[in-house]
């Protein structure tokens, strides 16, 4: 059997971004978008405070935003990435750095959101660094005493350093907690070589025990029919089963949607769908989201009628799953990468890496209507206000949309934005 080429378009996107990193001198501004939306850049990264926010944001109960940048900061010579907080101050937003990665045992280049744990601390992963250079899982705690400075860095604790061997390497995608306080996630590479160049990745569980954490590998991908190279973490159902996507592998080597079912003897993988290309979609890099009925929704970066990606649904029925293609993205709406979100009305929101009228990205909304789904752009990027979004968006209680674009903006280093109704 001929080994298929490992699919990992994130590195391709970063290379393409080089042509976009041009210096612009603009102010923070708002423009009108589709559906009467108003788009505002609430922070322009400038390198020293971060560069290339590759993933989305997390919001606390007070409305402050938390995120990571893949590069930038002052923690190492070339900028190994940052964790930041954005706090609203009247009509403005103030960025507060929480941590700057040094590129050694503390990790470097985060490609996952930070999430809040049950203890109120932040948790995330880095793609490289750590004790073995293959990435880390970390915790950030605020200063023990009240801070009187605007630059009060949080304290990092490394919970686990990946070896790049049987435990996987290059963790990507969001972490998730279960009700018992255990963490779950995925690595893009490492473990057995299988059909992938640098290993096909794993699904892991991190369990706290007496002040330390123990990593257990729940499943190791081979890159064959079971899938390979997951990039977006996993989600949990009410029974504790895990669901996710792989960007490679499957019966057509174009990616899968999988379930890890929890049994008395351990975990069993079930492939719910193997992508076939063309109208079916291929290479999902986004994660999944449940609707209230337990159906799954996701996106693929390629395939579809225009080879610019698809939106899909997997409906659960009597223990089986039925796949439906919902929407084919075109040249002005294409290449969705982020994990979609659903609002209370059943609309899907996401980011398109190469969509928009200028081809440098868009924020979109898909609305179900009479057996089909209608696409509308909430904002088309124009480089000066951001470019190449690939992180998820979030909604607040007022219907405002928040997210990041990894390039463009005032310095070409990426932006954080708000879209208001």
Lay out the secondary structure.
Layout: H1 9-17, E1 30-32, E2 38-44, E3 58-59, E4 65-69, E5 82-89, E6 92-100, E7 115-116, E8 122-126, E9 136-141, E10 155-161, E11 169-177, E12 183-189, E13 202-209, E14 212-220, E15 234-236, E16 242-246, E17 256-263, E18 266-274, E19 289-290, E20 296-300, E21 310-317, E22 320-328, E23 341-342, E24 348-352, E25 362-369, E26 372-380, E27 394-395, E28 401-405, E29 415-420
Antiparallel strand pairs: 1-2, 2-29, 3-4, 4-5, 5-6, 7-8, 8-9, 9-10, 11-12, 12-13, 13-14, 15-16, 16-17, 17-18, 19-20, 20-21, 21-22, 23-24, 24-25, 25-26, 27-28, 28-29
State the shape.
globular
Average of pLDDT: 89
Briefly note the structural class of the backbone.
mainly beta
Total strand segments: 29
**How many H/I helices?**
1
Compute the separation of the termini in Å. Answer: 53 Å
Strand order of the largest sheet: 1-2-29-28-27
Q: Classify the beta-strand content into a percent band.
A: 35-45%
Question: What is the CA-based Rg, rounded?
Answer: 20 Å
What is the percent of helical residues? under 10%
User: pLDDT under 50 segments (min length 5)?
Assistant: 1-9, 11-32
H and E order: HEEEEEEEEEEEEEEEEEEEEEEEEEEEEE
Biggest pleated sheet = 5 strands, antiparallel
Structure, described:
The chain is an all-beta fold. The protein is 2% helix and 41% strand. It has one helix at 9-17, and strands spanning 30-32, 38-44, 58-59, 65-69, 82-89, 92-100, 115-116, 122-126, 136-141, 155-161, 169-177, 183-189, 202-209, 212-220, 234-236, 242-246, 256-263, 266-274, 289-290, 296-300, 310-317, 320-328, 341-342, 348-352, 362-369, 372-380, 394-395, 401-405, 415-420. The strands form 7 sheets. Strands 1-2-29-28-27 form a 5-stranded antiparallel sheet, with no helix packed on it. Strands 3-4-5-6 form a 4-stranded antiparallel sheet, with no helix packed on it. A hairpin with a 5-residue loop joins strand 7 (115-116) and strand 8.
């Amino acid at each position: 059997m001929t080994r298929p080429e490992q699919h990992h378009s994130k590195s391709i996107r970063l290379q393409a971004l080089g042509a976009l990193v041009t210096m612009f001198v603009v102010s923070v501004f708002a423009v009108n978008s589709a559906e009467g939306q108003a788009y505002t850049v609430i922070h322009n990264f400038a390198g020293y405070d971060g560069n290339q926010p590759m993933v989305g944001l997390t919001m606390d109960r007070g409305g402050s935003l938390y995120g990571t940048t893949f590069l930038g900061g002052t923690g190492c010579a070339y900028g190994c990435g940052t964790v930041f907080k954005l706090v609203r101050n009247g009509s403005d937003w103030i960025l507060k750095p929480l941590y700057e990665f040094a590129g050694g045992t503390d990790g470097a280049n985060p490609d996952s959101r930070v999430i809040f744990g049950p203890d109120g601390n932040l948790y995330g992963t880095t793609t490289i660094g750590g004790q073995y250079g293959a990435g880390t899982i970390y915790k950030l705690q605020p200063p023990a005493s009240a801070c009187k400075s605007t630059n009060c860095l949080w304290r990092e604790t490394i919970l686990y350093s990946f070896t790049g061997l049987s435990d996987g390497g290059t963790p990507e995608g969001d972490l998730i907690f279960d009700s018992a306080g255990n963490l779950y996630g995925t690595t893009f590479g490492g473990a057995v070589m299988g059909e992938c160049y640098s290993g096909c990745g794993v699904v892991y569980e991190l369990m706290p025990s007496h002040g330390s954490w123990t990593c257990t590998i729940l499943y190791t991908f081979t890159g064959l029919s079971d899938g390979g190279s997951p990039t977006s973490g996993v989600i949990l159902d009410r029974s504790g089963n895990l669901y996710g996507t792989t960007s490679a592998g499957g019966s057509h080597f174009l990616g899968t949607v999988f379930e890890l079912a929890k049994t008395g003897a351990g975990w069993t993988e079930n492939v719910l769908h193997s992508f076939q290309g063309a109208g079916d979609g291929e290479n999902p890099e986004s994660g999944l989201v449940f609707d209230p009925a337990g159906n799954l929704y996701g996106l693929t970066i390629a395939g579809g009628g225009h080879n610019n990606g698809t939106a899909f649904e997997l409906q659960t029925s009597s223990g089986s799953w039925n796949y439906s293609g919902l929407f084919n993205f075109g040249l002005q709406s294409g290449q969705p990468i982020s994990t979609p979100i659903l609002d209370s009305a059943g609309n899907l929101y996401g980011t398109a890496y190469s969509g928009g009228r200028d081809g440098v990205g868009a924020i979109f909304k898909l609305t179900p209507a009479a057996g089909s789904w209608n696409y509308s752009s909430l904002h088309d990027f124009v480089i000066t206000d951001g470019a190449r979004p690939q992180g998820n968006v979030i909604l607040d209680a007022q219907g405002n949309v928040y997210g990041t674009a990894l390039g463009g903006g005032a310095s070409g280093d990426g932006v954080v934005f708000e879209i208001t109704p």
